[in-house]
Amino acid sequence: MPSKQNKTEEWIKKAQSLIWHPFTQMQDWEKDLPTIIVSGKGATLRDIEGNQYLDATSSIWVNIHGHRHKTINEAMKRQLDRIAHSTLLGLTNLPAIELAEQLLEIAPKGEAEDEKLSKVFYSDNGSTAVEIALKIAFSYWQHIGGTHKLKTKFVSFTNAYHGDTVGSVSLGGIDLFHAAYSSLLFDTIKIPSPTCYRCPINLDYPACEMACADEAEKILKKKHRQLAGLIIEPLIQGAAGMLCAPPGYLKKMRVLCDKYDILMIVDEVATGFGRTGLMFASEHEGVVPDLMAISKGLTGGYLPLAATLTRQKIYDAFLGDYAEFKTFFHGHSYTGNPLGCAAALANLTVFKEEKTLEHLKEKIAYVKKRLKPWKRWRHVGDIRQVGFVVAIELVADKKSKQAYPLEMRVGVAVCQEAKLRGVLLRPLGNVIAIIPPLSTTMDELAEIISVVGVSIKKVTAKIKI
Ligand SMILES: *Cc1c(COP(=O)(O)O)cnc(C)c1O
């Protein structure tokens, strides 16, 4: 019998040699000791050696009600005893039907009946949910016909992140991730990122009167005849470092999309399911998208599932005799997976039963209060908070906003310090993002904030540039 120690060493060796990890320099990974997670409960993760960590990234923005939640576990077990998977090609299943009904019920709503989101197209990750929106929007105008057939291009934002498949990378605007593939991608038109801390047009909010939206309008006005859709991350550009748009910007884009006859695709993959304090970020500005992509929090962080929601008029454009070939020729092997849909339904049940969004208000206010004094810290350039999404941008020089060079890996160093103190984070360059499960308790929240504070102080005090 191998001893427990030997067994752990064996796992470590395999972990270093067998798997190619995402967004990871494997040369570093092979040298560092991997943390092997074996279990979780609530906001806590436990590794193979029994160390415990608070999951302050929600396992990369997906977990909502904590790990191993009774309601979700039980719903999945019940579904498992019926069936794990069957296809949506030519068949359907109960959890997929019930989930579609509930998703359309909670989706952002306006006053007009015809702007309602009324159809659900399932897939299995955020990138594909975005690609589906893209293909639907593109085909929509082709089906409508006439001069609308010229509407074949998409407009997106610098600093945007919509996923890692080739189509979603084409929409992206983060050079570090996307530039390497530029010759492989289709052309998109870019609007400067509406981010206030590093304003692309060098103005100050609110004196600017949202001049960035006027810049956007100039582009839309000039190009609308060829534009099929505009895609936007609502309120926050996540992967770029939780960059915040000025209040009202999203609504303004809705108005402009209507004015210039452009489909508005809202990517709620990161912001959906309560992250920003409301079920969807679009609700903060009363926006109803034409197409909406959701994934990450959809199953409460349990299984890969995604959906693209759309309005009736878009769906209707695909109807016709079979021989017209207006069918939406797209689907995935696991589309509408019953087990995933059962997890998603249970996720929504917990929102209701535990009044998650109501309890979140107090936590959001607490974080705001705790972080307020940090604004005075020497290397804290900006603190951004939208609901329960928090980001602290560290800078080499506060006055000039000079960034630490990326290769100094300041964000990584802060996260390493935090890990030693039992808090798991993942940096976005020099930005420390705190995105715990919505179920995180006040005590756990207090601990996370204390640890992040100590870690930032420790690292920034050491660094000289
Ligand atoms: C994570 C993310 C995606 C991609 O989702 P995956 O499931 O990782 O493919 C798309 N858009 C946004 C805004 C995201 O944060």
Please describe what this structure looks like:
The chain is an alpha/beta fold and 465 residues long. The chain is built from 15 helices and 18 strands. The chain is globular. The structure holds pyridoxal-5'-phosphate. Pyridoxal-5'-phosphate is lined by residues 125-127, 130, 161-163, 233, 238-239, 267, 269-270, 295-296.
Kindly summarize this structure in a few lines.
This protein is α/β, with parallel strands linked by helices and 465 residues long. 37% of the residues lie in helices and 17% in strands.
Key terms for this structure?
465 residues; binds pyridoxal-5'-phosphate; 15 helices; alpha/beta
Largest sheet: 7 strands, mixed
Number of strands: 18
Bound molecules: pyridoxal-5'-phosphate
The low-pLDDT segments are: none
Task: Give the helix proportion (percent range).
Answer: 25-40%
Number of helices: 15
What structural category do the secondary elements indicate? alpha/beta
How do the helices and strands line up, and which of them pair or pack?
Layout lengths: L3 H14 L8 H6 L5 E5 L2 E4 L4 E4 L2 H4 L8 H11 L13 H13 L10 E7 L2 H19 L8 E5 L8 H6 L3 H4 L10 E3 L19 H13 L3 E6 L3 E2 L5 E2 L4 H11 L3 E5 L23 E4 L11 E6 H5 L21 H16 L2 H16 L8 E7 L2 E9 L4 E2 L6 H11 L2 E2 L2 E2 L2 E4 L7 H21 L3
Parallel strand pairs: 3-16, 5-6, 5-7, 7-10, 10-11
Antiparallel strand pairs: 1-2, 2-3, 4-12, 8-9, 11-12, 13-14, 14-15, 14-18, 17-18
Helix pairs in contact: 4-12, 5-12, 9-10, 13-15, 14-15
The site of pyridoxal-5'-phosphate has 15 residues, from helix 6.
